[in-house]
Amino acid sequence: MPDVFGQGDFRYTYVPNWAKLPAGWTFHECPGVAVDSKDRIYVLTRGEHPIIVFDRNGKFLRSFGEGFFSKTRTHGLYIASDDTLLVADDGIHTIQMFSAEGEKVGQIGVTNQPAPIWSGQPFNRPTSAAIRPSNGDIYISDGYGNARVHVYSKGGQYKFSWGSSGIDPGQFMRPHNIAFDSQERVYVVDREAHRVQIFDPQGKYITMWSNIHRPDCMVLWKDHIYIGELNGMAGLEDAPGMGHRVGVYDLNGKLVSRFGAPEEGEGPGQFIAPHGIAVDSKGSVYVAEVSYTIRGSHMNPPKELRSFSRYDRVP
To answer: Which among 24, 18, 77, 23 is positioned nearest to 50, based on CA atoms?
Structure first.
């Protein structure tokens, strides 16, 4: 009998060896993951094949994106209702758009031409993007060298921005991921402030959820939001209970389930560095991790660690 992780209606079993990569391929590490309308799973990597696509059973379908991204800083992956993919790359300061088949269909930002750091202008190391359902506007969290959210029209024209450096409501320490709910409220994870802030589509502050350890990624699924937490900051990397877990919240911010062992690891129910999360139509959860950057690159010798896992929901 496999171990069961989580609580209540959100309990999961780990699926070992789910992804069937071609011989000789590795993920290296995975900063993002998304699921399309046909339950195809798109894994964003920092390896030789930037986007790798699987069917729900883990069968390899194809890869694409080779030559379009920085080698080590692909960052965030979002999929729209029409299955268009938005890919944030903080290494080259862009958001690129691809069809589900891998054709590049657009770009926001100029490759390798960042705005001045902390200027508030787009972009300096953007982290993620999401689309407003009612009109197709693109909302971009920006990011490592800014403390802003930028809004563009569906056609890629700049509209407005909000945010500044700080810890007050409406300010950001590190806006790291962005999402919409069915009411078109805008959720922004503010990682180093250990919180999620919620705004209306014009950037007006509504509320915040605090005490979420370094929230790194999130995805809305039905009437719940799944949030991945990163590990401890410098000096607390190995402290038990500091992140490397997944929480499930209702849309009022109530935690209804959480899984992830207090100690990081590669075993069932363990994580190292959750950085991307997705849920398919059956409720299976896919967690992408930047395990090499956070842990493997610091080992002697450096080592690729597990950076992708699937958990099936228990009926």
So the answer is: 77
Cβ neighbours for 23, distance < 8 A, ≥ 6 positions apart: none
Return the residue matching tokens 């790798």.
52
Collect all residues with Cβ–Cβ distance below 8 Å to 192 and sequence separation of at least 6.
173, 174, 214, 233
Q: 3-state DSSP call for residue 295?
A: coil
Q: How many residues does the chain have?
A: 315
Peptide bond into 228 cis (omega under 30): no
Q: Any alpha helices (H) in the chain, and if so which ranges?
A: 291-294
Cα 172 from Cα 208, distance rounded (Å): 12
Lookup result for tokens 């605090």: 210
Mean pLDDT by 10 residues, the chain (315 residues): 93 97 97 98 97 98 97 96 97 98 97 98 98 97 97 97 97 98 97 97 98 95 96 78 94 97 95 97 98 95 97 96
**For residue 253, what are the domain limits?**
5-313
Q: What is the CATH number of the domain that holds 110?
A: 2.120.10.30
Beta-strand ranges (E) seen in 92-194 are 94-98, 104-108, 126-131, 138-142, 148-152, 158-162, 175-180, 186-190
- How far apart CA 183 and CA 213 sit, in angstroms, is 26
Question: How many domains are there within the chain?
Answer: 1
Strands (E), 222-294: 224-229, 245-250, 255-259, 274-279, 285-289
pTM: 0.97
Is beta strand 274-279 parallel, antiparallel or unpaired with respect to 94-98?
Answer: unpaired
137/127 Cα distance (integer angstroms): 17
Report d(CA 284, CA 272) in Å as an integer.
Answer: 19
